[in-house]
Task: inverse folding
């Protein structure tokens, strides 16, 4: 058994997939791990993320499986599941071995790893979809728009293109406070990610106009609410409680 010890990053996992093929490993005896838990009678290979190798894997996945299925693979790797690297690896191996047609990588959901990857992608994709709706920007004193989120999955990479497309002339920042990662979008320029120092929290000062509009918005939400028609259970189904911490109206 060969165990590739990866970092929890797309680049590191794709590098491990590249190495498994470069070293001609048998998929049945190969495992991609995101932790250091020892496995008996296994050869450990510590993976150093290599952008050049990762890019080669990305190009192969896009060419062989199509953009949509490649995006599902990336979305699955955004989840917090400890088995995600192995699930994606075995799904990719199956697709390449069977010469899967573009757009059909996830057809065989009876396969354990294909089903696992599909489920992880769906779950992380749902998280990203929620945040597209529930994310709230607030204007700082310097005019920058700031939004804080605390997602379970690492979906900031999927949110930034969405908001960059809709707010191209705005300076904005989306802060994933769970991982302390900042998505930064300078107006009319390309967005990028920045990792903050551990334990560091930004000191925020909102503009006076922002504070006025926040109070107006909360007053509006209270005013349109009909007490006799409140359905708290339905509200929680439509808007999970964990998102409300970061929403102005709550």
Result:
């Amino acid at each position: 058994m060969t165990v590739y010890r990866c970092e929890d990053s797309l680049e590191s996992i794709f590098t491990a997939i590249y190495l498994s093929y470069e070293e001609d490993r048998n998929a049945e005896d190969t495992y991609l791990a995101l932790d250091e838990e020892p496995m008996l009678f296994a050869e450990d290979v510590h993976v150093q993320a290599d952008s050049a190798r990762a890019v080669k894997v990305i190009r192969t996945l896009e060419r062989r499986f199509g953009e949509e299925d490649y995006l599902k693979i990336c979305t699955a790797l955004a989840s917090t599941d400890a088995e995600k690297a192995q699930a994606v690896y075995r799904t990719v191996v199956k697709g390449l071995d069977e010469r899967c047609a573009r757009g059909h990588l996830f057809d065989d959901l009876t396969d354990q790893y294909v089903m696992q990857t599909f489920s992880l992608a769906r779950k992380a994709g749902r998280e990203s979809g929620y945040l597209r709706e529930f994310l709230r920007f607030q204007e700082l004193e310097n005019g920058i728009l700031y939004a804080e989120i605390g997602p379970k999955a690492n979906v900031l990479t999927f949110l930034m293109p969405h908001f960059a497309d809709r707010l191209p002339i705005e300076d904005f920042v989306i802060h994933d406070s769970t991982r302390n990662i900042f998505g930064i979008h300078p107006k009319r320029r390309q967005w990028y990610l920045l990792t903050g120092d551990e334990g560091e929290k930004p000191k925020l000062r909102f503009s006076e106009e922002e504070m006025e509009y926040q109070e107006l918005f909360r007053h509006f939400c209270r005013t349109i609410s009909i007490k006799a028609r409140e359905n708290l259970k339905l509200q929680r189904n439509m808007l999970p409680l964990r998102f409300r911490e970061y929403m102005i109206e709550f």
